[in-house]
Design a protein that fits this description.
Layout lengths: L6 H15 L4 E7 L5 H14 L3 E6 L10 H7 L6 H17 L13 H20 L2 E6 L6 H11 L7 E8 L7 H8 L4 E5 L5 H9 L4 H15 L3 H17 L12 H13 L2 H13 L5 H8 L4
Parallel strand pairs: 1-4, 1-5, 2-3, 3-4
Length: 307
């Protein structure tokens, strides 16, 4: 999916990379709703960093793997651009730590036990040494699902990279009930941490996406309704475009500025809902059942939850 209305964010990332390359370590947290374009922005910037000669370490967190210790750290250490001797050394550190069978974690999830301290120090030392020769860019997508041990490692590095050529890029969802409060607090207290909040696309942004597939007159007709139906969510806009094209190919396209809502849009909505927790899916089903008559009280009674 092409990046639309994210030029300012890319410019900010470029500026932070320049700071990093000059020996001033940076951390940036990119937040936004589900399917708001965070991953595409991170990938675009990562490609730019690699083209400039940076060592790129990347990982994607997953809800299904959030309890696997050092899962994200392991992904980072298997990044193709990591020099083989460094990758072998870091992999050996993880294996030695696993064999040590550390004690159970402290009540504070961000507290570092004695068994992990040696590993984190070894990892941090190796990465900072690597960054002496060329900039190091570390990208973690969907950090809200990162395992606790990997979060500890990221914070450990952050506290020691202030004057190193390291840029850490973390993307996360904006959740109704924020998680990882300890990690978030520790991360944001450092002066070299920046925040980028991705907003929904404007009507002009939706028109820009439409312009890649339709003529000018069609764009003018469809942009307002596509923006209203999608709420400016890039994934939903793309799905509406795909449905419109499918309707045109089948000869069933509505006339004028009417919108074609079909299978692609339905699948995109379900994708967004399933990425959240089950409560969001239940609420959506309740709203669909009640329709225009829905009120918070009625919805709460239907789902047996407080309004």
């Amino acid at each position: 999916m092409a990046l639309v209305e994210r030029h300012e964010e890319l410019a900010t990332l470029d500026r932070l990379y320049a700071e990093c390359a000059s020996g001033r370590g940076q951390v940036v947290v990119i937040s936004g709703g589900v399917a708001s374009g965070k991953t595409e922005l991170v990938h675009e910037f990562a490609e730019r960093g690699a083209a400039r000669g940076a060592v790129l370490l990347s990982a994607t967190s997953s809800r299904a793997e959030s309890t696997l210790g050092f899962n994200v750290l392991g992904q980072l250490f298997r990044s193709p651009s990591l020099p083989a001797p460094v990758a072998d050394h870091l992999g050996a550190l993880l294996r030695d730590h696993d064999r040590a069978r550390p004690a159970a974690a402290d009540d504070d999830p961000m507290a570092i036990g004695d068994a992990s301290a040696g590993l984190l120090d070894g990892v941090c030392t190796a990465l900072l040494e690597l960054a002496r020769a060329q900039p190091l860019v570390i990208c973690v997508d969907d950090v809200q699902f990162t395992d606790v041990l990997s979060l500890q490692a990221l914070l450990y590095l952050q506290r020691r990279m202030r004057f190193a050529k390291v840029l850490m890029v973390l993307s996360k969802w904006v959740l109704p009930r924020p998680s990882q409060s300890e990690f978030r607090t520790e991360l944001t207290r450092q002066p070299h941490t920046s925040h980028l909040r991705l907003s929904p696309l404007t009507r002009d942004g939706v028109a820009e996406m439409l312009a890649a597939r339709f003529d000018e007159a069609t764009v003018r007709a469809l942009a307002p309704v596509h923006h209203a139906v999608s709420g400016g969510n890039p994934l939903l806009v793309k799905a509406l475009i795909d449905d419109q094209l499918a309707a045109l190919r089948s000869g069933a396209a509505p006339s004028g500025g009417d919108i074609a809502v079909g299978q692609e849009f339905a699948l995109a909505v379900l994708t967004c809902l399933h990425r959240w927790d089950l409560s969001m899916l239940r609420i959506a089903c309740g709203l669909a059942l009640l329709g225009d008559a829905a009120t918070p009280v009625m919805l709460g009674n239907l789902l047996d939850v407080p309004a």
